[in-house]
Amino acid sequence: MAAWKRRGGLGHFERRLIEGMRARGYDDSFARQIFSQIQGFGEYGFPESHAASFALLVYSSAWLKCYEPAAFTCALINSQPMGFYAPAQLVRDARVHGVEVRPVDVSPRADWDCTLERRADDEPALRLGCAWSRGLSEEAAERIDAARVRRRSRACRT
Fold first, then answer.
1. Which of 21, 50, 76, 113 could lock 31 by a disulfide, CB 3.0 to 4.6 Å apart?
2. Is there a contact between 18 and 31 (Cβ–Cβ < 8 Å)?
3. Distances from the Cα of 134 to the Cαs of 102, 106, 129, 141, in angstroms?
4. What distance in Å separates the CA atoms of residue 88 and residue 65, rounded to the nearest whole number?
5. What is the pTM of this model?
6. 24-71 pLDDT, tens digit each
C-alpha cells in the first residue's frame, strides 16, 4: 500500500482492478465496493506513536528472548492461545536455545500455569504447568492442589 501511495495513489489502478474482477465474474457494484475498501486502507497512515510503541515491544521481546529465554517462553506459553505459535513450537525453540524444560508434575512444585524453577547451577528451568496435561481440568488440578495442602498441614502437625 505504501508503494502505491508513493506512485500517486491507487486511482490509476481502479479501472484495471474493476475490469479484472468483472472478467472473473464479479458484478460491478461489488468490484467498486472492494476498490473503495482497498483505497480506504491505502490511505491509512501508520501513526508514529503506534510505530514507536510497537518498536518498544519488539525490542523488549527480543531482549527477553535473547537474555532470559526461560522467562520469555514461560510468559508466552502462559499467554496461550495467541494464534502465533503452538506451545510445542515454543518448547522446542526454548530447548534449542538451552532452556531446560521440565515436564508437568503434580508434586508440591506444580502449578496450573508454567513456572520457573532454579536448577542446581542457579539458572532458570521451565516447569510446564498442569494446564498442559491433556484431559486434566482446572477443577481437577485445584483438587490435587488442595490435597497437597492438606498433606503438608498434616505433616507439619506430626
1. 21
2. yes
3. 16, 13, 11, 12
4. 17
5. 0.60
6. 999 999 998 988 887 776 666 566 667 788 889 999 999 999 999 999
